[in-house]
Amino acid sequence: MKEITPRVEIDLRKIRHNAEMLKKLHEEKGIQVTGVVKGVGASLEIAKVLIDSGITSLADTNISRIKKMRMAGLKATFILLRTPALSEVGQVVQFADISMNTELEVIRALSAEAVKQCKVHSLILMVEMGDLREGIMIQDLPAFIEEVLKLPGIQIAGIGTNFACFGGVIPTEQKMREFSTLARNMQKRFSLIFPYVSGGNSANYQWLKNTKDVGAINHVRLGESIFLGRETVHGAPIPGLYQDAFCLVAEVIESKLKPSVPFGDRGRNAFGETVSFKERGVIRRAIVAMGRQDVLVSGLRPLLPVEILGSSSDHIILDAKNVDLKPGDEINFSLDYGAMMSVMTSPYVYRKYLHTDEKDDSSTKKTPA
Known about the structure:
Layout: E1 7-11, H1 12-27, E2 32-36, H2 44-52, E3 57-60, H3 63-71, E4 77-80, H4 89-95, E5 98-101, H5 104-116, E6 121-127, H6 141-149, E7 154-161, H7 173-190, E8 196-198, H8 205-210, E9 219-222, H9 224-228, E10 246-259, E11 282-288, E12 300-302, E13 307-311, E14 316-319, E15 330-335, H10 337-344, E16 350-354, H11 362-365
Parallel strand pairs: 1-16, 2-3, 2-9, 3-4, 4-5, 5-6, 6-7, 7-8
Antiparallel strand pairs: 1-10, 10-11, 10-15, 11-14, 12-15, 13-14
Helix pairs in contact: 1-2, 4-5
């Protein structure tokens, strides 16, 4: 029987290898790793692999996924990786051990809820270091901490910052020294000990590799580097890691010789786009049964010598070139982070978990870069 398509094949052995290697690399410099599972939809199978690899804390931006992991009985410290919405503070206190925060109004609500639930909720205060996503401005941090320390039911577990997610700002040696100095100054000023000086994410790989002194940094949050084996500033492969733990498989549903340019009066397509086409003469156009409702198409790369011409909501159109594709044939695609995240959160893409080297294609037998 043919297997379900579209499907994403996930090699858990490769993910475990990457997680163990990165954990070892960071711990050699005194830095703890939290596994960020938002990009894989907090898959329980993948979360278990991270825990089995020795990673003791998991992070997600979605409190419902943290609830799912906790209710499944996973033994880990759960971190909400985004400032809580006021509408969800009850669930945050109930299901997350730690949340990242930037707003006093939200922290006051967390305090009140923690008192109500007879709990102590931990906070990582996120600081703006230039990427201009979330963060308290540096000059505002002392007064912010003073206010937080007045509140019952909560405790400051540390400070954190973010790089290369929105503005593409790189965690340079200078940036990391500035953040490290800030952490030390805040601990000294308020007589605090920060279990978490969370210095960034998968974008920090080159800094970690090259720095001679990590300073006060003792924590990072890693997702893409674990799952795709890449640092995120330049998208470069990390030596010794697998880049092919995820493979998307789609099925050909049509393969015909057709013109390369649409014919007839033309306007916008279904997505409001005006698309231009290159004249290539008559080509073999193949269609796979998958589209924008399933995956971020721009993040796909076919593993056959074919070319993606475009897509609609439920079709991807290919120039098959010299590949003799027929209906029923399967085409494998590699994924970038955006494509991986979209298929792992899509209800229309089947997940197939591989636990061993039983997969037949060459990607499973490929050694790490």
